[in-house]
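Duplicate of #3305? Posting structure anyway:
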């Protein structure tokens, strides 16, 4: 059911964008409508560089000679840690 809500939301948002670009000259309006769909993916791609490393990635490239990462300070994370990380940071 949730996909239906997001589909309806997307259709409504498309109508709103269509009305927003409706008063612009026809020659450029369709280009702006098509180009406006690229804004959200560009933002998401830029956010990838700010995402923290996952514990799984850290365990794959773990350097046992370095101090444990900051997210290992929580006891709940230590309990759920993978075996390579437990061996490295025990």
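Output from current build:
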């Amino acid at each position: 059911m949730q996909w239906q809500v997001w589909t309806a939301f997307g259709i409504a948002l498309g109508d709103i964008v269509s009305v927003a670009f409706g008063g612009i000259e026809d020659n450029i309006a369709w280009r702006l409508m098509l180009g406006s769909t690229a804004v959200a993916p560009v933002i998401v791609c830029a956010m990838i560089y700010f995402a923290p490393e996952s514990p799984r990635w850290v365990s794959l490239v773990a350097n046992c000679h370095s101090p444990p990462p900051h997210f290992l300070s929580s006891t709940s994370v230590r309990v759920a840690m993978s075996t390579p990380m437990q061996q490295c940071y025990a």
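Confirmed duplicate; merging threads. The two ends are 45 Å apart (CA to CA). The first helix runs from residue 2 to 20.
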